[in-house]
Amino acid sequence: MTIATSVQRRRFLSQSLVGLAAFTSFPSILSAMGGMQDFPKVIPNKASANFKADVEFDLFCRSGSVSILPGQKTQVQQYSAVLKTGPKHTLIEIPGSYLGPIINLQKGQKVRINLYNQLPEPTVTHWHGLHVPANMDGHPQYTISPGEVLVYEFEVLNRAGMNIYHPHPHEATAKQVYHGLAGALFVRDAEESALELPSGLYEIPIVIQDRRFDHQNQLIYASSRHDHMLGFYGDRIVVNGRPHYQLDVESRAYRLRVLNGSNARIYKLAWDDGTPLTVIGVDGGLLEQPEVKPYVMLAPGERLDVWADFSGRKEGSELVMKSLPFSGVLPKMAERMGGMMQSSLSVGSDYPIFTVRVAKSVSDSPKLPSKLSTIVKHSLSEVANPNNPLPIAISESPMAMLLNGKAYAFNDEQPSERIKVNTIQLIEIFHAHGAGGHGGGMGMGMMKQGGGMGMMMSMAHPIHLHGQQFQIVSRSISTQHSDAYASVRDGFIETGLKDTVLVMPGETVRIIKPFQDFKGLFMFHCHNLEHEDMGMMRDFLVE
Q1: Range list of H helices, 325-465
Q2: pTM above the 0.90 mark?
Q3: Which CATH number fits domain 380-542: 3.40.50.10310, 1.10.3720.10, 3.40.50.150, 2.60.40.420?
């Protein structure tokens, strides 16, 4: 048995080294993923005389410098905004942060946003989570050149929730987000307001990101090819654009609006003293009732609405939000070889994110409502394809990060990617190694995850679907991945509306998603932003 085990181990290491070499050593790896896309040039949308805006503001994409670490300022790219029409609280700056201003909108408002590109490169802004027309969604085909202005006009149709705005130019999204172009967008509605949840000073945005800095405090990005293949990981956590973030609170209940704004890093959020997390909302807004979890998994692009009650804690006491240890999100060959492809802040390790300090003792605090909201849900009896779910097939190999067997290409929708408007669709997201692994077409006969090198390279992917938010129907895991899955499985919340879902290796996730109101191209892609830029992205054509 000892000899056989030794031989097997040597064979594994040999295969792993070959795989790692393939994973990281191709000079043309980025062009092989998605290739440069020649989108047709679209004349930037102008303001419509017939659109009567309740809210209008100018949004600027600019280069700038911000003090993040002691000493020299850091060069960044950032959003800034000027309100032209609407309530004063529509735009709220985060002092001293490279993040864009918080945008506050109300359901039913008509909004005009004038996007000014003052960068030395093309860009476009996507309203992650909002249900807007296709030509207002920030699709890469609407990217504008330096000096151009793009006008967005839409009505806010979403229920209350936390959304995101960030760039979406093809093959440059990751770099622009990493250098600072991102912000939070809150929608409010009457249902949420009636609950009288903590607000104002007691509602705190928590944007979690990881970054690397050089000795001159400048951002380091994608220094090696494996930074693209695995996604880019920093070695320092910043919250709301600040390192060593500390939140001073009163001994009462707060509402923490948490966003994973990292390019690739997945977090396993938990309080350091074992206090459970009380979750009241996710991507698509409030849950119907609170859920109490020992920890919550949070992938890039996902959001959490957390009820954090510090009542009864002594003045001067501290509580730390941590990311707890977990496994299974990186390829097995990377994990088994000691995480050699990770940053010094290892993926799946134990580390602090921010500290809460009770600065003042008070006696009054709001109570957690037992009923939060009513979610309009769709049943399987309503879907147009109950026996034929639309596939989102994930596959990785040394030269390919693919969805449905293909890298991104404009105007390249496959039959399963063409959808009738005003229908409700069942979608199945799964790993499909060994089928169309180098860009070939994938039909409904595509293989689910099997063995070989593809399986060794399998990793977790946060899949984001543009347009309306969806509900999770089921999750299932293959037996060969069940051990690693046990370290994350209790951290998923499946009862709310979502627009981004983490799909672990060997996992199959079924969702129900409406495609209502608007025709046109709506993207779906991996929200590991390096994977997206390498072509792990496709379009649904709603017609």
Answers
A1: 332-336, 452-456
A2: yes
A3: 2.60.40.420
